[in-house]
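Late entry, evening session. Most of the bench is empty. Finally got around to the prediction I had been postponing all week. Sequence below, unchanged from the version circulated by S.P.
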Amino acid sequence: MHFLYLDEAGGTERPDLGRAATPVMAIVGVIVHARLVPPLTRDFLAIKRRFFPSRFDRGPALDHVLTEVKGGELLRLTRSSSRNQRRQAALVRAGLLNLVRRYGCRVIGRVWVKRPGQRLKPAATYCYAVQDIAVHFDHFLAAETSHGVMIADSRSQNLNIAAASGRSGA
């Protein structure tokens, strides 16, 4: 049994809209074997606690899953004039990539590099990516003789229905 955790980063806005605008839109998933989810989760939370310690109370450790570190925040740290903040962002990225390697995860996704002055069509972009990723996940599962579950980051019910039914709104 495998899980595919799917999330998006970046946005569909024009890349030159301002400092907060993102240069890319990425919809990416991480495939992990079910037996590796508990240790991977513990190690992932350890990275978040190490680099963002002030965000975590002393409550139950698994409650820390609810504390998000957004990609936009890592982008802000990466672009910072502070050497320490840039280093923090680089270390977080390196830690995450090490987790992916150590647990034999597979990464699957779609990335759009946006043209200056042009935004992406939100529904069409998301629907195409999720449906294409689902096809590739199915191929992976067949090759592994496994079953799987795709878990997508929270979106509205209408957006989920449109993606599932192939209605892109484009």
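Two things to note before I forget:
The chain has a mean pLDDT of 89.
Residues 39 and 103 are 9 Å apart (CA to CA).
Will write this up properly tomorrow.
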